[in-house]
Amino acid sequence: MFYGLDAQNLRIMNHTIGIISSLYKRVFHADHLITVERAMGFSEDAKFQAAMERCAENEQDRSLSWRLHTLTWAAGQCLQLPGDYVECGVYKGFCSHFLVEYLDFGASDKRLFLYDTYEGIPEQHSEGSPLKPGDYDEQGLHQRVLDRFKAWPNVQVVKGVVPDSLLESCPEQIAYLHLDMNSASAEVGALEALFDRIVPGGMIVLDDYGWHWFRAQKEAEDVFFAERGYRVLELPTGQGLVVKR
Questions:
Q1: Which of 11, 96, 169, 171 could form a disulfide with 84 if both were Cys (CB 3.0 to 4.6 A apart)?
Q2: Domain check: are 119 and 235 in the same one?
Q3: pLDDT along the chain (245 residues), means of 10
Q4: Which residues of 112-131 are buried (b: 16+ CB within 10 A; e: fewer)?
Q5: Domain co-membership, 10 together with 127
Q6: d(CA 214, CA 218)
Q7: Strand ranges (DSSP E) for the chain?
Q8: Residues 25, 75: one domain?
Q9: Is the domain of 31 the same as that of 79?
Q10: Total structural domains in the chain?
Q11: DSSP 3-state assignment of 125?
């Protein structure tokens, strides 16, 4: 699924994908990503597909399958590490819902903390972001996310502005961190608060890192990690990946 195209360019894109699909047996085209003749093991993973059926509410959710593959791989690698899981930037909770379903998180002794304003991007973190205050502010969103995770007592939904809300409730040790706040200042603030809590081997997934629209985040995060001797791995999905030493 490709967004941001007018009707004419969308027809051109669909025609082009049709030609590519006629030439190759395995073509992935969704989430602004086109690949040819990749194994795509997640598409043959029955557990992955079952989680998609339980969690996805629309085609946009389903289009995120390759990003979800990154998240479930990273989070799965961290299950044997000490520490809890943290996500900053939750929106409707789809990615986190998929994660807890796929990993059978209810059977884990870990906790998952979900931080968001649940009211869209705050004014103080909107500079440099293509999103504006009020974008993604939906009536009753916080309650909907609470309801979505009520079956998992080890999932905590925390409402507030990051990084301030991290002071209210935050795990001492973190094995897995997912940042998706569409804001350079918010994400760097979260990293400053949380990076030292991430255990060796812990994974950091940056959802917006490789997207040109969110270039300000990449530039700010490159500085943050370079100061600590790290380089972010940019993925074709638009995500970034860091493994804590």
A1: 171
A2: yes
A3: 72 84 92 94 96 96 97 98 98 97 97 96 88 81 97 97 91 98 96 98 98 95 98 98 98
A4: bbbbbbbebbbeebbeebeb
A5: no
A6: 7
A7: 27-30, 33-36, 84-88, 112-116, 155-159, 174-179, 198-206, 233-234, 240-243
A8: no
A9: no
A10: 2
A11: helix
